[in-house]
Amino acid sequence: MSESTSFMYENYSNFLINFHRRDQNAVTPIKFQG
Questions:
Q1: Residue 9 belongs to some domain of the structure
Q2: Could you tell me which of 11, 16, 20, 31 has the fewest CB atoms within 10 Å of its CB?
Q3: Would residue 34 count as lying in a domain?
Q4: Which residues contact 28 (CB under 8 A, 6 or more apart)?
């Protein structure tokens, strides 16, 4: 796996983690989603 691919995979994993956290908390206002 190249460095760039690994980096993209890390970002994707972090995105999923943050997405699930936000979904569970359901307290983050929509204006902070950007």
A1: yes
A2: 31
A3: no
A4: 22
* CA–CA dist 2, 31 (Å, integer): 35
Domain range spanning residue 8? 3-28
- Spatial distance between the Cα atoms of 29 and 11, rounded to a whole number of angstroms: 22
Query: pTM to 2 decimals?
Result: 0.40
Per residue, what are the HEC states of the chain?
CCHHHHHHHHHHHHHHHHHHHHHHHCCCCHHHCC
Is residue 21, in this structure, part of any structural domain at all? yes
Question: For the chain, how many structural domains are there in total?
Answer: 1
